[in-house]
Amino acid sequence: MQALRLLFVVTAVPFMRIVEGAQAAHCFYINNKFLRNVTDFSAVVGGLYSAWNATEDTRQHVQLKQIYVHSFTGPLKLFSNDIALVLLSTHVSINVNVLPICLDWGQRLPPLPSGTLGLVAGFGGYRDMQYDVLKYTTLPFLDHHDCEKNTSLNLQMYTTVADKFCVGVNNGSAVGPGDSGGGIAFETEGKWFLRGVVSLGAYNKVENSFFTNVAHHVSWISDIAKEVVVPNLDAKCLRCICEAASGCNTTYGCALGFCGPFYMSRVYWRDGGKPVLPEDDPIRAGAYEDCGRNYTCSAVTVTNYMSKYGQDCNGDGHTNCDDYAMIHFNGGNACYQPMGDTNFSARYELCRADTLSLPPRTYHSLINSSTGMASADTSASVLQCGCSASYVFAAVIVSMWGAARRPHYMHRASILAATSF
Q1: pLDDT for 147-169, tens place per residue?
Q2: What are the Peptidase S1 domain coordinates in residue numbering (predicted)?
Q3: Fewer CB within 10 Å: N-end or C-end of the chain?
């Protein structure tokens, strides 16, 4: 069993032992205008029953730490950008009931053919009815032509929204009220990918519904994720990078365009967010040099740089200090190049052997720098979802507590005049 601290709030699909990621932004707003406080929400992972106090061995209760939304304006822009990310306050355990799903980080998946069935799960029902036990069904993706042809006039306006796609009805079932934020997962070559998040549809009849297209927001998701987590970058790894760069010579000044024990360039410092010493100003002449000569300030710069460029550079399926060393040596955009027979490489290998608890060195075929596999676990354990993905997700059921303290959940079932679910 592994522990994982999650960025994303997701819904569970326990029968298939996969999970789906992200959330609809409108779930976190009052009347689609005012963002609720994060303390109004809690989460359950691995639960099969909608009741907050249900007794299940598989359930884990988690508080939320932060909600991220993406320029959501509700009906003013036809519910575009109806997606949210949530950072959990603590780790959850990954097990057979809470497993990761893949995202198409490199946006390499082919377009879905119209009629392709995806898996959806939730607790929703007809109009205001909700199920007590988690349900799931398969629903067909509809391309733009089929969506326009089969969607009622009162929903036609949503076919023009750039970040929406259409999902149809299957054997009288569709998503409905309460299903908001639930994902739809499609299988590609044996791997399950989150492709959409329930956004809106009809209220009082079974009809096509509209999902936020996750691929449209991958860049934003990646930016938020990198702000939150730099997997497997700890003090030991920073020390080894420092050793590789200069022998971690803290007396080294600035020469030939590089400064300090990390041998840091001005461009690197800028990409790392231009950290400065206490009471200093990044626009002051000499701020870069003073930060570069200081180990602590330089380490902050390196951490920020890895947050921006961190990826699986050597193609071994993990993101760890080996990759960060390659990034530091080659630069973020060319990290997959080997370090070769260099002093940097030799010093890193010595430190790696003495200091880092990493598996024996094995090199795999190099991968494109836009994809990779990394763990979101800051405790350095590594988890794979079976595909190229920079962060992983676990099953979460979100509850929103109103004045009556009635939990509001994400749901599935029959779609029930246009409304956000």
Answers
A1: 999 888 888 988 889 999 999 98
A2: 24-226
A3: N
